[in-house]
Write a structure and sequence with these properties.
alpha+beta, 383 residues, 12 helices, 13% strand
């Protein structure tokens, strides 16, 4: 059934605007041609997502014919980024539709309507934002750039590598904590299983570990060895299957002191696969842009926006600390030293300063990859 909703729109050239509100059980589809007072809304409840997509395409074509828009009328589709990723966008673009995947946090919500939350309202908000965006109001929402399938596949390997590294740390940390319960503070070797079999891990009295604890640690070491083997396979795939352009950028970043191959690869796959137009786009993409609050006599620093890729944000913070260590003669490191010198022992001031370093470092590395400009005062690795 099609509930309708009045919308405040200014006429847009002949086209069909479509908004999708996606959930695991059903999709809401909103349609508007930029001329009508009311939007048409439908609910698709097919069990399989692919069937819902087919039903949505059929609905779009039927509406285009019913509203006499003609086959040449363009179709503009919008949906929010989320767990569905980009497969819907790719499928619709294959039909010749223009698709915009948007950041959910960028969709404006009226204050008096903030407490109301339904799929129906969401699909109407998306539709209104799309119509405004098509009229030139590009501040109405933030469109996410969709990676190509090759770049997305490479990113899978990089993210899996991060998860495997985290899992390795968890296994080793679990074994250390188990050993400490019996007073064993011996450093664990890389091959913990061999260390256990040699009987080098003992309790606080120098005696052998109890049989249950010993067996549990052996099983834990076997799981650790399995994850390490998987990590080796993923690293090999990353090294062999990077695109030539991605490999070029990784090698360029790796020439800078303080930038290792792993960090360079992650940064290229997560951030520098894009071609940014200016420095503001770089800062906004990683969510390291300051968010001031300035109203009347009240001026408050609200911290960074935290929009964009959280993985890149965390990586840049880590790389900023490494940069200060290995590029102490750079202008950026000297700026941090001067800024931190005035902060005394204020830990919050130090955190704010390192975030600023991370943002400036991201911009400096972007310029370095774009036109070869080495960050001021930075040193390259010796050949």
């Amino acid at each position: 059934m099609q509930p309708t909703q009045e919308m405040d729109v200014t006429r847009v050239d002949q086209m069909l605007a479509v908004s999708l509100e996606l959930s695991s059980k059903s999709w809401k589809v909103g349609l508007h041609d930029g001329r009508r007072e009311r939007a048409s809304i439908y609910t698709l409840k097919q069990e399989v997502a692919g069937a819902r997509l087919g039903a949505a395409i059929e609905l779009i074509e039927q509406t285009r014919a019913r509203w006499a828009l003609g086959k040449d009328a363009r179709v503009e589709v919008i949906y929010e980024a989320g767990q569905d990723g980009f497969w819907i966008a790719r499928a619709l673009e294959g039909r010749g539709y223009a698709v915009r995947v948007v950041d959910p946090a960028s969709i404006p919500v009226e204050r008096h309507a903030r407490r109301a939350k339904t799929d129906r309202l969401d699909v109407l908000r998306l539709l209104s934002s799309l119509l405004g965006w098509l009229r030139g109001e590009h501040d109405r929402m933030r469109v996410i750039r969709m990676p190509d399938e090759a770049a997305e596949a490479q990113r899978h390997w990089a993210r899996e590598r991060g998860l495997l590294q985290k899992e390795i740390g968890q296994h080793r940390d679990r074994m250390r904590k188990l050993l400490r319960t019996v007073g064993c503070w011996v450093d664990l070797e890389r091959d913990v299983g061999a260390q256990l079999k040699r009987g080098e891990l003992k309790d606080y009295q120098g005696g052998a570990l109890s049989e249950p604890l010993h067996e549990r640690l052996l099983r834990e070491s076997e799981r650790l060895a399995q994850v390490e083997a998987q990590l080796k396979c993923v690293e090999q795939a990353l090294a062999e299957r990077l695109s030539p352009e991605a490999q070029r950028r990784v090698e360029a970043l790796g020439q800078l002191r303080g930038v290792g191959p792993v960090g360079a690869r992650r940064l290229v796959l997560e951030l520098f696969w894009r071609n940014f137009g200016n420095r503001r786009q770089v800062g906004a993409c990683v969510g390291l842009v300051p968010q001031p609050y300035d109203s009347g006599n009240s001026r408050v620093d609200q911290g960074i926006s935290k929009q964009g890729n959280r993985r890149v944000r965390a990586l840049l913070i880590q790389m900023a600390w490494m940069w200060l260590r290995y590029q102490s003669g750079s202008v950026l490191a000297k700026w941090f030293a001067q800024r931190w010198a005035g902060g005394g022992g204020n830990k919050r001031a130090k955190r704010i300063a390192i975030v600023a370093v991370a943002r400036r470092l991201a911009i400096a590395l972007w310029r370095y990859l774009k036109d070869g400009t080495v960050p001021d005062g930075a040193a390259l690795k010796s050949a």
